[in-house]
Design a protein that fits this description.
102 residues; alpha/beta; Rossmann fold; 4-stranded parallel β-sheet
Amino acid sequence: MARGDETAIVTGATSGLGAQFAEQLALRGFGLALVARNVARLKDVQANLISRYALPVEILQADLVTDEQNRRGRVTHRPQTAESAREQRRFRIEGAVRQSKH
């Protein structure tokens, strides 16, 4: 079992399946990098997971839609890209869980 020395990234981590994946990965001892659009909810999830599991939890505010989805009008705001979010932090990712509502 990992004890925070391995990091998994989870998108859509503030609700639904993403939140459940984050919980299960923390339960298994993974450090987490949580990605979602709503930074306030990200901070709440981060604080909850840190207090319950005493593991490192990074947050990245980003919208991981593609340029094609933007062109189709599925997004009404200008999202931060995953690449620019990743450049803000430097850590090694051991696994990824991506949630999609489309």
